[in-house]
Amino acid sequence: GAVVSQHPSRVICKSGTSVKIECRSLDFQATTMFWYRQFPKQSLMLMATSNEGSKATYEQGVEKDKFLINHASLTLSTLTVTSAHPEDSSFYICSAREGGWNEQYFGPGTRLTVT
Amino acid sequence: GEDVEQSLFLSVREGDSSVINCTYTDSSSTYLYWYKQEPGAGLQLLTYIFSNMDMKQDQRLTVLLNKKDKHLSLRIADTQTGDSAIYFCAETSAGGGNKLTFGTGTQLKVEL
């Protein structure tokens, strides 16, 4: 089946530093990848949609200069949280889709803690 | 924007059936989904239903869709302790660019 991995699974960083999270589709080519954020005991909120080779589309209220998304290949998208602050601490989940309407396959998530 | 609501918590005894409910507001929804999330993990797609269907059954899972009332339910037969998780309903619509809009999640607790 379609597998999506994320790395790292957990990261702790200091306030003011940047952290990069990778999302990989392991056995299929992902034309579209999505980045979600999930606060404890809450739902997933879509942050941005990225298509391979083009700029990401950010949801309203998501700062594109703070959450840098790169989708340089059909199997890799990265999310960089720049100048992280404690309020950026959250569970970040990516998903990948192979075609226009196909099922989204979710990664296992990355727990970010900013101290 | 679209709104998807679920009750927060459901507790059932092992062996009983569980019914998790979801209401949504987007009348142009095309697909509706049920996802399972175990602690500290990503989401696993359980099943989905196209908006022109009323019911879909897949082993222990039965999905009912009342499009008129914009109500979706997931019935889990013979609920097991391994079914304990958070369940999210989600919907996509053609007008929404096929993006998923998730419900608030229902935590299912299965007791012995």
Can you characterise this structure?
The complex is a heterodimer of chains A (115) and B (112). With 115 residues, chain A is mainly β. Chain A is built from no helices and eleven strands. In chain A, strands 2, 4, 5, 6, 9, 10 and 11 form a seven-stranded mixed beta sheet that branches. A four-stranded antiparallel beta sheet of chain A has the order 1-3-8-7, with no helix packed on it. With 112 residues, chain B is an all-beta fold. Chain B is built from no helices and eleven strands. Chain B has strands at residues 4-6, 9-13, 18-24, 29-37, 43-50, 55-58, 61-66, 71-76, 85-93, 101-102, 106-111. In chain B, strand 6 (55-58) and strand 7 (61-66) form a beta hairpin. The mean pLDDT of chain B is 91. Chain A binds chain B through residues 4, 6, 34, 41-46, 49, 93, 95, 100-101, 103-109, 111, and chain B through 35, 40-45, 48, 88, 92, 97-105.
Keywords:
A: 115 residues, mainly beta, 11 strands, globular, B: mainly beta
Summarize the structure.
In chain A, 0% of the residues lie in helices and 53% in strands. Chain A is mostly beta strands and 115 residues long.
The portion of residues assigned to helices of chain A is under 10%
Kindly report the average pLDDT value of chain A.
92
Largest sheet of chain A: 7 strands, mixed
Number of helices of chain B: 0
Terminal Cα separation of chain B, in Å? Answer: 40 Å
Detail the topology: elements first, then pairings.
The complex is a heterodimer of chains A (115) and B (112).
Chain A: E1 4-7, E2 10-13, E3 19-25, E4 32-38, E5 44-51, E6 57-58, E7 67-73, E8 76-81, E9 90-97, E10 104-106, E11 110-114
Parallel strand pairs in A: 2-11
Antiparallel strand pairs in A: 1-3, 3-8, 4-5, 4-9, 5-6, 7-8, 9-10, 9-11
Chain B: E1 4-6, E2 9-13, E3 18-24, E4 29-37, E5 43-50, E6 55-58, E7 61-66, E8 71-76, E9 85-93, E10 101-102, E11 106-111
Parallel strand pairs in B: 2-11
Antiparallel strand pairs in B: 1-3, 3-8, 4-5, 4-9, 6-7, 7-8, 9-10, 9-11
